[in-house]
């Protein structure tokens, strides 16, 4: 996924919905992508009704960009927010938890849990990472 795709707003259904226009339209645990256009997409990519998510915080929980992602969706390069530092990561899932391992000077530093501390990172591209590495070497 591109950094732009990873930053598209997503919401998770965390409670039963009393006002479903169609049966099984929204199920607890479903994740919806809000592309800011005419329809919201479910996990299968099918369009569903437009919802004003923030009006229903007890039903729809906004997800951070990294939350509820497959390892294959996670970016190999990230940028530290508020800083100009870029890092290369690897990811794995263990016991249902997502972990990352960060490269520092081409050495892995150890597995860390992807949790709220990951809010300090934004997805980045390889070219941004390589430009940062070249600027460090000047």
Characterise the protein shown here:
By secondary structure, this protein is mainly beta. It has two helices and ten strands, in the order αββββββββββα. It has helices at residues 3-6, 126-136; strands at 10-13, 31-34, 40-41, 47-48, 60-63, 77-80, 86-94, 97-104, 107-113, 121-123. Strands 4-3-2-1-5 form a five-stranded antiparallel beta sheet, with no helix packed on it. A five-stranded antiparallel beta sheet has the order 9-8-7-6-10. Strand 2 and strand 3 form a beta hairpin. The two termini are 31 Å apart. 14% of the residues are buried.
Topology:
Elements: H1 3-6, E1 10-13, E2 31-34, E3 40-41, E4 47-48, E5 60-63, E6 77-80, E7 86-94, E8 97-104, E9 107-113, E10 121-123, H2 126-136
Antiparallel strand pairs: 1-2, 1-5, 2-3, 3-4, 6-7, 6-10, 7-8, 8-9
> What is the count of DSSP helices, taking H or I runs of 4+ residues?
2
What's the overall geometry? elongated
Terminal residue distance:
31 Å
- In terms of quaternary structure, what is this? single chain
How much of the residues is beta strand, in percent? Answer: 25-35%
What is the CA-atom radius of gyration, in angstroms?
Answer: 18 Å
Instruction: Provide the spatial order of strands within the biggest beta sheet.
Output: 4-3-2-1-5
Describe the sheet with the most strands: 5 strands, antiparallel
Count of extended strands: 10
SSE succession: HEEEEEEEEEEH
Query: What class do helices, strands and sheet pairing give?
Result: mainly beta
Q: Please, what is the average pLDDT?
A: 84
Low-confidence stretches are none
Q: Summarize the amount of helix as a percent range.
A: 10-25%
């Amino acid at each position: 996924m591109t950094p732009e795709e990873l930053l598209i707003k997503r919401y998770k259904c965390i409670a039963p919905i009393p006002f479903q226009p169609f049966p099984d339209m929204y199920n607890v645990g479903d994740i919806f992508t809000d592309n800011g256009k005419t329809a919201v997409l479910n996990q299968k990519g099918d369009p569903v009704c437009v919802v004003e998510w923030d009006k229903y915080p007890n039903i729809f929980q906004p997800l951070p960009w990294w939350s509820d992602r497959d390892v294959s969706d996670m970016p190999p390069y990230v940028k530290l927010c508020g800083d100009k530092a870029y890092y290369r990561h690897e990811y794995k899932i263990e016991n249902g938890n997502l972990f990352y391992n960060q490269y520092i000077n081409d050495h892995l530093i150890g597995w860390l849990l992807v949790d709220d501390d990951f809010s300090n990172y934004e997805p980045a591209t390889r070219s941004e990472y390589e430009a940062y590495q070249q600027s460090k070497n000047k």
